[in-house]
Write a structure and sequence with these properties.
With about 160 residues, the protein is mainly β. About 15% of the residues lie in helices and about 35% in strands. The structure holds ligand MTE and molybdenum atom (MO). It comes from Halobacillus salinarum.
Length: about 160
């Protein structure tokens, strides 16, 4: 588990964008956040229902960075240095995909991926990268951590 505090927190968007962005904690929490309620399903069988997430919609972050036409995927990096995953641009633009900062009104605990994690409500939770610190816009496909181990890239939950 990476030790992330408000002192060493950093977050960036780079790769195939017109305006690469980077934030420290103070800058990051100044962005306007939205609130949504969704369920959270791990592929191994457990679920959390009616979780209230507060954060920044991914589509807004991507719009502010100016995604270039050649970009086909968003690659998500965890500060743990091991875990990565991707979404297609279309999946990433879904209205409920969020970079979350609060869970049920509280800061996200370190063990649950805080201070900042991805939330992809339509997909199994392995797409919801914990300790998110970088999003890179890329052209070639990248195979994420669990997908290298056999899970599906398009991890839609059938409900
Ligand atoms: N960086 C990172 N993100 C991750 C994981 C992980 O091991 N490392 N596990 C994933 C899986 S399989 C699930 S079910 C959820 C679990 O989130 P939780 O630990 O907050 O319950 O995080 C996802 N994101
Ligand atoms: Mo999981």
């Amino acid at each position: 588990m990476p030790e992330i505090s408000d002192k060493n927190f950093s977050f960036k968007i780079d790769g195939l964008v017109n305006n690469p962005k980077s934030w420290n904690w103070e800058q990051f929490v100044q962005m306007n956040r939205e609130v949504q309620v969704s369920d959270f399903h791990c592929v191994t069988g457990w679920s959390l229902y009616h979780v209230t997430w507060e954060g920044i919609k991914l589509k807004k972050l991507l719009a502010s960075a100016g995604v270039q036409d050649k970009a086909k995927y968003v690659k998500f990096y965890s500060q743990d240095g091991v875990y990565t995953d991707t979404l297609t641009i279309k999946q990433a633009m879904e209205d409920d995909v969020m970079v979350a900062v609060l869970i049920d009104g509280e800061l996200i605990e370190n063990r649950n991926g805080g201070p900042v994690r991805l939330i992809v409500p339509e997909m199994y939770a392995y797409k919801s990268v914990k300790w998110l610190n970088r999003m890179e816009l890329i052209e070639e496909e990248h195979i994420g951590y669990w997908e290298q181990r056999g899970y599906k890239k398009d991890a839609y939950v059938d409900v």
